[in-house]
Amino acid sequence: MLTGLNHLTLAVTDLNRSVAFYRDLLQLQLEATWDTGAYLSLPGLWLCLSLDPLRESAPAADYTHYAFSIGATDFPLFVERLRSASVREWRDNRSEGASFYFLDPDGHKLEAHVGDLASRLAACRQRPYAGMKFFDDR
């Protein structure tokens, strides 16, 4: 049985640039580097950057993205730091909780989100998505 998400691996075209982005701008902890990769972490997250010169840096057209949790008090300063660094935004927030949608240097779609699954479900109970069903029989 699965017990959780183990790690994310993101293909990058410039390892030094990506390490700087995730370490310096997003403030992940750099754990290790090697010629073609790096490990970074946040509590509960292991992120691997893997050098792949064949990666297309254009963002995908679909909604697939990776969301990081952030506290409400840290959110405004975080957004200001990314905007000051000219980080590209890819979407406006359309759901409960504060969210900032942005791209990494290789076009991976990321989000910083205030809230969790419980707060999302509570908001959805107030205003459900079309056809939404809840499964509370645990």
TrEMBL record:
It comes from the Bacteria. One of its GO terms (molecular function) is transferase activity. The keyword Transferase applies. The keyword Amino-acid biosynthesis does not apply. Residues 4-115 form the VOC domain. Pfam families: Glyoxalase (PF00903). CDD domains: FosA. Keywords: Dioxygenase, Oxidoreductase, Transferase. PROSITE patterns: VOC. This is Catechol 2,3-dioxygenase.
